[in-house]
Amino acid sequence: MNQHIDPGSLRADDGIEKGGMLLHVDNISLSFGGVKAISDVSFDIKKGEIRAIIGPNGAGKTSMLNVINGFYHPQEGTITFRGEKRRRMKPHAAASQGIARTFQNIALFKGMTTLDNIMTGRMTLMHGNLLTQALWVGPAQREELAHRETVEKIIDFLEIEHIRKTPVGRLPYGLQKRVELGRALAADPALLLLDEPMAGMNLEEKEDMSRFVLDVNQQFGTTVALIEHDMGVVMDLSDRVVVLDYGRKIGDGTPDEVRNNQNVIDAYLGVSHD
Amino acid sequence: MSPDFLNFIETVLNGLMTGVMYSLVALGFVLIFKASGIFNFAQGVMALFAALTLVGLQTGQVPFAHLINAVLGTDVHHWGPGLPTVLAILVTMLVMIALAFLIEKVVLKHLVNQEPIILFMATIGLAYFLEGTGDLMWGADVKALDVGLPSGGSFWWEDVTRNWAPAGSDYFGMYIDTLDVSAAIIAVVLVVALTLFSQYTATGRALRAVADDHQAALSVGISLRSIWVIVWSIAGFVALVAGIMWGAKSGVQFSLSLIALKALPVLILGGFTSIPGAIVGGLIIGVGEKLAEAYVGPLVGGAVENWFAYMVALAFLLFRPQGLYGEKIIERI
Fold it and tell me: Which of A65, A260, B65, B297 has its CA 20 to 30 A from that of A151?
């Protein structure tokens, strides 16, 4: 009964070896009306790595994350997560299979406290459906307390004890980003998708956030896929980088390989597309 | 205390009691509006439908009796003496939950991501459908509803207050309907229960999360469809309570569905997204109405009660469109 609650047996522990294939997307194409957001992109994410997705504005990075967690449904291609191949994900299914994410423009529950926000992250780990939870007060209460314990650990880990009871709408931007990370972590994610976790932060906040991402990856073994514009951060943090430009993949490899890839250099320096 | 002042207190008290009844209806609107942004025009009809079903079960009516008789040439009307009140209330609640499931399956599911106005139109359709179904199921006659709550004036309160006036004055005590008092107590219990539910249960947290941000709620794995069923079930429960109280007060009749219109000014006053707003709004409208009737009525020939609430709502729309407690809409441009 408590298998999901004990942090020692995270959902990330799914029998896939570290370095094994956790997710791969194959030949994904996505368009909105006549606008092609992603064309024929394939890449993979290995268990335990930090995978960065980079590219200029409008390259299709966020769309890619939305495809992975089921907000967008691609017209072509397949998504294989933990060996299970699908044409499309559904947000609800993605979440319950352990894909958690944060958003470019923070999407927290602004009227709720930090604690409540992070507790929602454990929604998919709670037993019974919402209706039985509403009616069975006793067991639900015990379960709630067990989840609460895990959430308190996450709060400690992210060093946000002082804002536990503060409605997140009142928090400064950097802290909101941190709470959002906490909510994603609370799901014991097998795959953590971070959409520009450091955007709009000052140097100190960036360093803190980088440290948290690294710690999450190393201490819990959580696989991370992140979109980031700060190249310094990307090169320091990530094991492998995939580069998108105009919805196409133009590079894929270790930070060093990508840095020396002519296509990537052209994309960033603005060589004309012809 | 002078009799004039005592009369004033009596008017205020009765206003508060009426206000509670308005709040009960408004509450149902707020719950659905908060969670899904839908203005549920059918809320009043849901109260009517719940009351009709309750009376039908209580008195042992055969549902669709007229239809069955017309088609089959039979003469069925009652299947027995009816269910005991408590059981009838429980069964009615189950019917309201089933209704919530149906509404989600048949209507809402197909209208995801549509404009609010389209969902609003759908609830208008739902209102007429439910009204017709209620008529077909239970008949259109006015029915008395008795759930065993005390009713009639309180003699105790009359006796107590009679002595407040100076001796020898021509004052006979305050009139207060015990049914209204029960309604007020039930409303308070209901609001406290709803608040505890939304603050301290996982389901309540999910409801608040959905009300706050749909996309974020999806990303943590909350299923919007189950949330909608739950919200409509709760609104159905509130409708049942409102239906019982209004039905016990003035009989179960089809004009009951029009109490939804009285909830509109309450909502404009309290804000569409605030539960405390619905309560306070209802109380203000109730008291305002009674006071206006008592003190302005004689000057203009009476019937102030009928339009007062709408005038207040109009004034609020002009000066404070978000209501007393609603979220102020500020957009960055």
Answer: A65
- In angstroms, the CA A77 to CA B235 distance is 42
**Can you list the domains of chain A with their CATH numbers?**
7-269 (3.40.50.300)
* Cβ(B173)–Cβ(B160) below 8 Å: yes
- What's the one-letter identity of residue B2? S
- The pTM (predicted TM-score) of the whole model is 0.81
Q: pLDDT tens digits, residue range B294-317?
A: 998 888 888 888 889 999 999 988
> Which residues does A132 contact at the CB level (< 8 Å), separation at least 6?
A140
**In A, what residues contact B, Cβ < 8 A?**
69, 71, 91-92, 94-96, 100-101, 103, 107-112, 116, 119-121, 123-124, 126, 129-131, 133-134, 137, 140, 143-144, 183, 187
SS (H, E, C) A33-52: CCEEEEEEEEEEEECCCEEE
Residues of B in contact with A123 (CB under 8 A): 202, 206, 220-222
State the Cα–Cα distance between residues B115 and B88, nearest whole angstrom: 38
Chain B residues near residue A183 by CB distance under 8 angstroms: 220
The runs of H, that is alpha helices, within B37-138 are 43-59, 65-72, 85-102, 116-138
> Scanning the structure block, which residue is given the tokens 């009300």?
B211
The B-side interface with A (CB below 8 A) comprises 197, 201-206, 208-209, 212-213, 215-223, 226-227, 229-230
Task: Give the CB-side neighbour count of residue A212, counting CA atoms within 13 A.
Answer: 26
Distance from the Cα of A55 to chain B's closest Cα (Å) equals 24
Q: Does A123 contact B216 at a Cβ distance shorter than 8 Å?
A: no
Among the partner residues B212, B218, B226, nearest to A109 by beta-carbon distance: B212
Q: Per-block average pLDDT, block size 10, for chain A (274 residues)?
A: 39 68 92 90 94 91 93 93 89 89 91 92 76 64 84 93 92 92 93 92 91 92 92 90 92 91 83 61
Phi-psi region of B323 (alpha: psi -120 to 50; beta: other; left: phi over 0): left
3-state secondary structure of B34: helix
Burial class (CB in 10 A: 0-12, 13-18, 19+), A28: buried
| DSSP assignment of B35-55 | HH----TTHHHHHHHHHHHHH
In chain A, what is the greatest distance between 2 CA atoms, to the nearest angstrom?
Answer: 66
A101 interaction partners in chain B (CB closer than 8 Å): 219
Q: What ipTM was assigned to the predicted interfaces of this complex?
A: 0.80
The alpha-carbon gap from B111 to the nearest alpha carbon of chain A, in Å, equals 17
